[in-house]
């Protein structure tokens, strides 16, 4: 079973406007809402690809109920811990550009956190856990603590997060880490201008303990490195509709093909990421399948 952990789920509220004028009344041309949060998006894509998944994390209030009912409609198993505040609403503003306003999210109490630790303590080495996204106020060491526990119990895990949430897990050998270019720059504290710069930074993550490193580069695709391979991955052509969740789809594509070889894993990763970028909601299995053979894979 592949478990996803979303510490801070969200209702993603997409607002489309021709133009946004600060300080004035603006009216939308279209609004949409989706159950969001990085791990939840990963579970949604895993389910599309046909992998068994359970969504874990923290939900609360009417927005939490909305997320759970949306997952149930898609037959996605969930086992969230109830927190006392309302799950946040994140606004995704679409004008000629994409802008995002992500809310802070409800507080996770110590008891809530312990309840998650207990759930994770019953997992088996054949399971896999994907930790993704922000952690609302407090529990700064959540990623490190949970990664250390899973490592001790021999349970593989992957990380889609930023800064020390990602780097603090490296000593515990994450199966996959997936920073985007901006997040990799934050980690290295350098501006990474060339492919060589990105490769060097990815190699440093491998040396620090990651087993596989996938750097997503938006419309430029991705770079993959592990102990055996260094690959440049170019996405198929298409028109960008909505990049929200593209990175999460990439993670789901990669993990869903675990055991089927790196070529299959990276192909699914980029096809899933781009299929989501070319859609208003997350990609469907058909969208992903249609792009699989169009992903270009080159050794570097
Ligand atoms: N404009 C685009 N055209 C084609 N593919 C895209 C585009 N933007 C994203 N993708 C696909 O999605 C993958 C992930 O994109 P990106 O680097 O934007 O991830 P991210 O920043 O983690 O995304 P998010 O946080 O919104 O989920 C890319 O590797 C690529 O396959
Ligand atoms: O605030 P976080 O937890 O970093 O990111 C949350 C979020 O932007 O990530 C997903 C896309 O990757 C969205 O569904 C969601 O709104």
TrEMBL record:
Q: Which GO terms describe its biological process?
A: carbohydrate catabolic process; D-tagatose 6-phosphate catabolic process; lactose metabolic process; small molecule metabolic process
Keyword Magnesium carried by entry:
no
Q: Which domain of life is it from?
A: Bacteria
- Alphabetically list the UniProt keywords: ATP-binding, Kinase, Lactose metabolism, Nucleotide-binding, Transferase
GO cellular component terms listed in the entry, alphabetical order: cytosol
Ranges for domain Carbohydrate kinase PfkB: 6-281
**NCBIfam families from the xrefs?**
1-PFK, pfkB
According to UniProt, the name of this protein is Tagatose-6-phosphate kinase
Organism expressing this protein natively? Lacicoccus qingdaonensis
The organism's taxonomic lineage, starting at the top: Bacteria, Bacillati, Bacillota, Bacilli, Bacillales
């Amino acid at each position: 079973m592949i478990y996803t952990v979303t510490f801070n789920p969200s209702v993603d509220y997409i607002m489309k406007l021709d133009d946004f004028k600060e300080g004035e009344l603006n009216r939308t041309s279209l609004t949409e809402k989706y159950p969001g949060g990085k791990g939840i998006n990963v579970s949604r894509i895993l389910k599309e690809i046909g992998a068994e998944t359970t969504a874990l994390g923290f939900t609360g209030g009417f927005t939490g109920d909305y997320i759970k009912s949306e997952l149930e409609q898609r037959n996605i198993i969930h086992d969230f811990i109830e927190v006392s505040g309302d799950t946040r609403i994140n606004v995704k503003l679409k004008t000629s550009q994409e802008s995002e306003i992500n809310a802070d999210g409800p507080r996770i109490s110590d008891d809530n956190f312990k309840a998650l630790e207990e759930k994770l303590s019953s997992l088996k080495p054949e399971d896999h856990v994907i930790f993704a996204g922000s952690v609302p106020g407090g529990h700064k060491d959540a990623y490190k603590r949970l990664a250390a526990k899973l490592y001790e119990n021999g349970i593989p895990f992957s990380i889609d997060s930023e800064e020390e949430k990602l780097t603090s897990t490296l000593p515990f050998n994450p199966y996959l880490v997936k920073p985007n270019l901006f997040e990799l720059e934050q980690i290295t504290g350098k501006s990474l201008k060339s492919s060589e710069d990105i490769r060097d930074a990815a190699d440093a993550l491998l040396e620090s303990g990651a087993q596989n490193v996938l750097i997503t580069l938006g419309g430029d695709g991705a770079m993959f490195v592990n102990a055996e391979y260094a690959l440049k991955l170019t996405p198929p052509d298409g028109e960008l509709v909505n990049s929200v969740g593209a990175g999460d789809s990439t993670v789901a594509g990669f993990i869903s093909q675990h055991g089927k070889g790196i070529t299959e894993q990276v192909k699914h990763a980029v096809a899933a990421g781009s299929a989501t970028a070319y859609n208003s909601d997350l990609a469907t299995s058909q969208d992903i399948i249609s792009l699989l053979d169009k992903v270009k894979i080159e050794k570097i």
